[in-house]
Amino acid sequence: MKYISQWITLILAGIVIAGVYFYVTHAMQAQKNRIQTPRPAAPEQAIELSTLTTTTGSYAATITASGLVKPRYSLTMTSQVSGEVIRLSSQFESGQVIKKGHVLGQLQNSELNSSVASAKNTLAAAELAFKEEMRQGEQAKAEWQAAGFTGEPDSDLVLRAPQLAAAKSEVEAAKAALENARTKLAYTKVVAPFDALIIARNVSPGSYLSAGSEIGTLYSTDRAEIQLDLSNSDWLKLPNSSILLENWPVLISSIDTSETWQGKVLSINQHIDETTRMRSLTISLENPLQHTPPLIPGAFVEVSIQGKRLDNLWRLPNTALSQKSEIWYVDENSRLAAFETTPWFVDSKYVYIQVPDTMRNKTYEVLAQPYNSYLKGTLVKPLNTSGQTNKSVQP
């Protein structure tokens, strides 16, 4: 009995140990399975970003450049002859506007008066000699015929043809000398060659002037001109020859005030300046001093020229262009995408972007203010802040 009882105890202990072993092993396996089983993925959260709705359109660039207002003609008048200033016009003062032909001053030169009188005398004598030679020629011809000679004489001296030609040349030379003397005498009267603004007067009554002495400085008043140097990128935004044929309008604005004038494109230079490596065009304004307010010579102005219309552009706020020159948008899967670009042109509010071919004529949500931390492919919930679609209109 004693051995049976020990075996039963041993068997029961073995059963208990086996049960504990299997229990512990099962628990450890279950725990291991729980650790290795992945948790279900959490749903991806879309980030909310401010966007604006945009589509391609046609827009015209505005080319802006600065320049100096200059007159059509700038003339420093000089004396053509010598003489004493005996009279000056009351309008020959700085700031006065005069008409073409206005007599600004009068010089006195007795030698010129004497030259005119002498030239008249020489001309009278030459005309008298010419008439006498004509009469002698007629008499020689009559004598030749009265002598019964036929044909022409062996020498034209017989009928005095060379003498007559010489006398005629003397008359013509005397007339030219008289005209020259009268022209020089006329130069003693200082006359404005065009409608002008007096810039400076360099003489006074009693001044003695030599030929070539400065009298004053005049600016023409019929037209103001502004030359603008434009880069090659600016020229690409302008129309071709139509800019001249259509009197292409431009807006001239004062740098210092809010005053504006409506001018036009006058001419285009067909060469590149060797120093600046730029081409220039000239803007004009007719009768600048008659405008209200007047556009005065020497003013520094800003000129705005409307360019040609360009297609397939996005017009976006300036903030839409990132620091890396990228445009960020939401693709068809509501995920962030971007492309690098260089603005075709800009103004005070907008950048105008050339759209990739695959994105033309489609509507996109564009980020209003992207940051460098954004990642492509991020799920996005657009929050439209534009208020309206950016349609194809000219700004």
Can you walk through the features of this model?
The chain crosses the membrane at residues 6-24. Keywords: Coiled coil, Membrane, Transmembrane, Transmembrane helix. This is Efflux RND transporter periplasmic adaptor subunit. Residues 109-136 form a coiled coil. The chain is α+β, with helices and mostly antiparallel strands and 395 residues long. The chain contains 5 helices and 21 strands. The protein has helices at 2-36, 110-146, 161-186, 232-236, 242-245, and strands at 47-54, 57-71, 74-78, 83-88, 97-98, 103-108, 189-191, 196-201, 208-209, 214-220, 223-230, 249-254, 260-268, 279-286, 300-317, 326-330, 336-340, 345-346, 350-354, 364-367, 380-384. The protein has a 6-stranded antiparallel β-barrel with strand order 2-11-14-13-12-15. Strand 16 and strand 17 (336-340) form a beta hairpin. Helix 2 (110-146) packs antiparallel against helix 3. The chain is rod-shaped.
